[in-house]
Amino acid sequence: DAGVIQSPRHEVTEMGQEVTLRCKPISGHNSLFWYRQTMMRGLELLIYFNNNVPIDDSGMPEDRFSAKMPNASFSTLKIQPSEPRDSAVYFCASSLEGLTTEAFFGQGTRLTVV
Amino acid sequence: GNSVTQMEGPVTLSEEAFLTINCTYTATGYPSLFWYVQYPGEGLQLLLKATKADDKGSNKGFEATYRKETTSFHLEKGSVQVSDSAVYFCALKQGNMLTFGGGTRLMVKP
Predict the structure, then answer these.
(1) Which residues are bridge partners to B86 per DSSP?
(2) pLDDT tens digit string along B12-48?
(3) Exposure b/e, A42-72, CB count within 10 A at least 16 = b
(4) φ and ψ of B84, to 5 deg
(5) What stretches in chain A show pLDDT beneath 70?
(6) Which residues neighbour B42 within 8 Å (Cβ) at sequence distance 6 or greater?
(7) Of A24, A102, B76, B85, which sits with the fewest C-beta atoms within 10 Å of its C-beta?
(8) Is the predicted pLDDT of residue B54 greater than 80, yes or no?
(9) Which of B32, B42, B98 sits opposite A33 (nearest CB)?
């Protein structure tokens, strides 16, 4: 398996524009996580899906952020409108359901909003 | 709620020095515990894990023991290399939720 695949790797956009980040989890994994990493706040969990259903979105910063998982092999994180403070590295991770199973991370998308 | 506390970095060591990165956790019940490593420009990778009390996880010369009595999972390595320079994250898993610590940057000098 190629692992968790995220696209794009880098995104530079202007304030106010819509940004869509994409994630393909490892085949067979039924849990998917979106994280945001910044120097100031470290690694923050934004949202978690299980079997394509959002289970916990309490980490989503505000209504400008939305996430979907239309099927088991694809998820998106959308920011509309984007703001400079959204600049961060966004990671997607997937795992098998269960207490002892580890999460596998993608390479991340580095987002810069100017 | 669950939480993970790691020692603040950066930790700077000379090659072949002994490494300890402290990690303590707060959780109800019996979580699984993990150490992840992040090299520059990459995502997090699993380094080792332990799923029950007194278990020892080990990989690439790194070790950590699940200590329920002290709610700790300290990472150790007997002799670090320059290539170990990275950010290390301690994490716990309860149910299906992973909770990470703030990360500790390790810098190893030749």
Answers:
(1) B106
(2) 999 999 999 999 999 988 899 999 999 998 999 999 9
(3) bbebbbbbbeeeeeeeeebeeeebebebeeb
(4) -80, -5
(5) 1
(6) A107, A108
(7) B76
(8) yes
(9) B98
In A, minimum Cα distance to B89 occurs at A43
CB A106 within 8 A of CB A92: yes
Q: A14 exposed, middle or buried (CB, 10 Å; 0-12, 13-18, 19+)? A: exposed
Q: Could you give phi then psi for residue A108, rounded to 5 degrees?
A: 95, 155
Q: Which two tokens mark A29?
A: 């994994």
Q: Are B2 and B26 in contact (CB under 8 A)?
A: yes
Within 8 A of A55 by CB-CB distance, chain B residues are 96
- Strand B19-21 versus strand A42-50 pairing type: unpaired
Q: Which residues of B touch A (CB under 8 A)?
A: 31-32, 34, 36, 42-46, 49, 51, 89, 93-100, 102-103
Surface of A (78-97) touching B: CB under 8 A: 91, 93, 95, 97
